[in-house]
Amino acid sequence: MAALPKITKSAPGEPFQKLESANDNKAPISAEALLGMEFPPVSYVVDGYIAEGLTILAGRPKLGKSWMALGFAVAVATGGQALGVDCEPGEVLYLALEDNRRRLKERLEVVLYPPASRPDMSRLSLVTEAAKIGGGLVEFLDEWRKAAEQPKLVIIDTLSMVRPPKKSNQDSYAADYDAISPLQKWAGEHGVAVVVVHHVRKAEAEDPLEAVSGTNGLTGAADTIMVLNRNTDGPKLYGRGRDIEEIEKALRFDKGRWEVLGDADEVKRSDQRRSVLRVLEEAERALSPDDISKEIGMKVNNVNQQLRALIKSGDAEKAGYGQYKVAGR
Q: What superkingdom does the record give (predicted)?
């Protein structure tokens, strides 16, 4: 057995000894030595959403995943905002592998409108063709990283365009894991954020992570999973990862840009409250919770919750037992 590398320990009362890499995982290390190491803090490219490492951004076709990815790219390259978050500027590489230069130019013009206030876009590099993972892609990314002054973000749109073919003797889980683990390893080693755009299954899933197309090998290899979805409450972004808190945000899409309206549950409650208040405003008499429930198709328990909130805020008041009206009417 080869001798283990010499490890510098911290004496009691002395500051931790800083070692070079957070990802030099080839040789065993004692827990005592690990406790004496310092690592740089995790770097966030879009705080609360995208950290260094590999992120999968999944969603249904034509829902706006590429617009969101382009928004991330522009915000980081210009030090602008994405999803309401200020981004620290850095160099970005966008692999738009399902687009051509004409379409990319059109999309950029939408996102950067009006032209008179367009920021400097020199830190955003665009590619429409690339090798596959295991066939030169990681080497290409590393050449870009070495040439970039401050490499921060790589976006690959989409996974299917760079995914290597499944080997004849591989099971589906292993094929999925092996497909993206080289990207995850490269991103972690160099402190770069890599966002891979992907699709979701056609079937609905209770857990948003289960909606990601493929096996758990994909979601297991990634550091963060974000799922863009739309239901009767409108579009939502769900996220879960090793270095981000679990999120579920209500969104709005306007002129090529995604905007966060707030936490999805809170936005839904606010929408329900407005619906109840609107019915009370339009009514010519006081209404019961059952009346309101039938009018807007909301469960009576939910109606009662919203009525209590409206009374607390001073927008509604009781008009007798089990009857409610707009305050002051």
A: Bacteria
Closest CA to 23 of 39, 4, 6: 39
CA pair distance 132, 123, nearest whole angstrom: 24
Residues in the chain: 329
pLDDT classification of 23: cutoffs 50, 70, 90: low
The topology (CATH level 3) of 267-326 is Arc Repressor Mutant, subunit A (1.10.10)
Alpha-carbon distance of 303 to 158, in angstroms, equals 43
CATH class of 44-245: alpha beta
**Domain range list for the chain:** 44-245, 267-326
pLDDT at 124 over 60: yes
Question: What is d(CA 45, CA 167) in angstroms, rounded to the nearest whole number?
Answer: 34
pLDDT of the residue at 18: 37
Cis peptide bond upstream of 15, omega within 30: no
| Residue 124 three-state SS | strand
> How does strand 124-127 pair with strand 91-96?
parallel
For residue 173, the Cα-to-chain-centroid distance in whole angstroms is: 23
Q: How confident is the model over 263-273, as pLDDT tens digits?
A: 887 777 778 88
